[in-house]
C-alpha cells in the first residue's frame, strides 16, 4: 500500500513538473478538487478525446455527434430523476470531523482484499517458479477463494442495502467490517445520510425573476432531449447512436485522488438507440467494443477487468464497469449501461412531446431502448498517464524517468534538437519544424547538453528526438532517436515525415480494434 501511495505521489508531482496538470487557483492556495490542464496536459487530453471521437463517430456510419448546452431547462433534471434520486450516501467521522462516501469506504475495504490476493499470488509464483499457473492457482487456492467469496458477500450486501435505501444497514456493515476513518483511525461514525450532488445556479437579470437551474451532472440528458431532432435531420435508422463529449459538474462529498474524482470534469458518452428486446445483444456488443478500444492503447490487458453492478440505477436493467488498475487499485474507468426506455419515456411524460420512432421494417412505432457507454476523460487521462510513468535502470547503471505515452496521443510527436546553437544548425532545425508542423505537433529544444535534452523529452513523453549535427550540413541526414528503445538511427530529412507517421497515425492504432 505504501508503495502504491509513493507511486501516486510521483504521478502527481510529475504531472505538475512537466506541465500536464496544475492545481486550479494555486496562487490563492487552490480550490479543492478543481484542476487546470497545462500546456502538455491539454494536448494529451485533446488527443485522447480525438482518439475516442474517431473510433466512436468517424468509424461508425450509424453514430453521429452532438454538442448540447451545459444549461438545460430545470424540468429536464426532474424527468431524469436527478432531483429526487441523484444522491450519494454520506457518513461523518465524529472525531476527525471528516466526511466520506459510505459506499466508497466499503469499496476501499474490498479493494484491500485485492492486495491480499495479489500477495498470495506473488508468494505462490515465487514458490513454484516457472511451473506456476496463476489462473489455476486463483481458481483452486482455498485462501484466495475465501477472499473472493468475502468480497462478493460484502458487495452484494452493500448493493442490496443501497437499492433498498437501507442506510442503517450500510452503517452496520461499516461497523461490522471495523472500517476506521483513514485520517484519524477512529471508528466513531454518524448515521448515513443521502446527499444530492447537483450544483444549483440562477438564470436571469434580477434575483426576483431569475430561474433556478442546475449545472448538468451528466451529458446524457442533452442527447435524450435531442433524440428526435437528430434522428429526423440525419435520417438515421435504428439502431443508431449519438455521441457527445463535454463538461459535467458534481458536488462530490469527497473529491479526492487527484483528477480521478473532481467537481468539474469531462465525459465522453454515446447513447445507442435500439429496438425493445434487443438491448441485451447490444449491451454485450458494446461491452466488448469498448474494452477492445481501451486495449488498443497498449496499456496491458491485465490492467482491465469488468465489474457487473449488484446495485442497478433506477433506469437500468444491466450495468457493468470497465475497471482499470490505478496506482490506488482497480477503480471504475468506463460504464456500460442498458438504460431501457426510461429516459425517453420520462421526457415524454414531463414535456408532453412524443419521443417515439416509427420503424418501417416492422411497421411499428415504439419508444427505443438505450445502451449507454460513458467514460470519464479525466479518469482516462489519469489511467494513461499513471501507467505510462516508469523509472528504469539502464545498462550503464544510470537511471531514467520515461513517460511511455501511447505515441498516437502523445502531446508532441517529436522534438528537434540542434547539437549546438551555432554554425547554422538551429536554422536547419527550424526548417525541419516548419515542414513537419503541418502534420504533427513538434517542438524545438536547444537548452542543455544533448543527453540532458534526451532525458527531458523522455520524461515529457515525446516519442522521437531528431538531432541536427554538423554532418547534416553535408548530407541532409539527421539522427532520429526512439523514446522507448533509445535506439538511434541516421536517416535523410526527407524520410522523417513517413517514419513519424508510421508510429503515430490514428489509422494504424485504431486498426487494432
Explain what the structure shows.
This protein has 18 helices and 23 strands. It is α+β, with helices and mostly antiparallel strands and 513 residues long. The protein has a seven-stranded mixed β-sheet with strand order 3-9-10-16-13-12-11, sandwiched between helices. Helix 2 (39-58) crosses helix 13 (377-388), helix 5 (102-128) packs antiparallel against helix 7 and helix 7 (142-163) packs antiparallel against helix 8.
Key terms for this structure?
BirA Bifunctional Protein, domain 2; globular; Herpes Virus-1; Rossmann fold; five-stranded mixed beta sheet; seven-stranded mixed beta sheet; alpha+beta; 3 domains; 513 residues
Compact description:
The chain is an alpha+beta fold.
Strand content: 15-25%
User: Biggest sheet: strands side by side, in what order?
Assistant: 3-9-10-16-13-12-11
Low-confidence stretches: none
The helix/strand class is alpha+beta
Question: Which fold name corresponds to the CATH topology of the largest domain?
Answer: BirA Bifunctional Protein, domain 2
User: What is the overall number of helices?
Assistant: 18
Silhouette: globular
**What CATH first level of the largest domain would be assigned?**
Alpha Beta
Mean pLDDT: 93
Named at the architecture level, the CATH assignment of the largest domain is 2-Layer Sandwich
How far the N terminus sits from the C terminus, by CA atoms, comes to 34 Å
Number of strands: 23
Binned, the helix content reads 40-55%
Q: What is the domain tally?
A: 3
